Amino acid sequence: MADGRTTPPCVFLSLLLLLSAANGLVQDFCVGELSSSDTPAGYPCKEVSTVTCDDFVFTGLGVPGDTSNLIKAAVTPAFVSQFPGVNGLGMSAARLDIAPDGVVPLHTHPGGSELLFVIEGTICAGFISSANDVYFTTLNKGDTMVFPQGQLHFQINAGDVNAVAFVSFSSPNPGLQITAFALFANSLPSPLVEKVTFLDDEQVKKLKKVLGGSG
Q1: Is residue 191 part of a domain?
Q2: CB-side exposure of 214: number of CA atoms within 13 Å?
Q3: 153 appears as a binding residue in the annotation
Q4: 53 belongs to a structural domain
Q5: Distant-in-sequence, close-in-space partners of 28: CB < 8 Å, separation ≥ 6
Q6: Model confidence pLDDT, tens digit, residues 88-97
Q7: Cα(202)–Cα(205) distance, rounded to whole angstroms?
């Protein structure tokens, strides 16, 4: 400065950020280049010259998922890997189909919050907070429930007909980890599972057999 004083570092940094924001280019979109690797910041952008309308359209949510499986439920994702147009937009979607007696077991989405909207049937849904408080209810057609990011939550068909819901997420790639599969569908040694779950050896090995784990 002219009087010999120096500019405080925090003021200088703030000026740089303001100038950068003022001169930065604002893109309309960043369609994911799925042939590249995903990163915490998302996929790199496709060249605009290669972007088509198809990148912004996903048709899979109109098709019922296959519920002929162990949990009698199916999730059809429209995440960035299936729907490159949501890359960088902070959103994605999915379809949830649950047959009678079906369940989406306790799971988390570490990358985003979830909003569920029931369009058919009845769903018992809830989540457990980090303070171990429990919030659950029965949702009917037209009802909506939100599951905060990272919280353990579940959905169960509470009726005798197929239940269907559409789901939106606050991330193009919210991630998914099902607690039971994380514990019993891999090669984590049974003695360790027993130690961290307080289950006995017979119970652990039974669950590993059901879910395809080993060890």
Answers
A1: yes
A2: 1
A3: yes
A4: no
A5: none
A6: 999 999 999 9
A7: 5
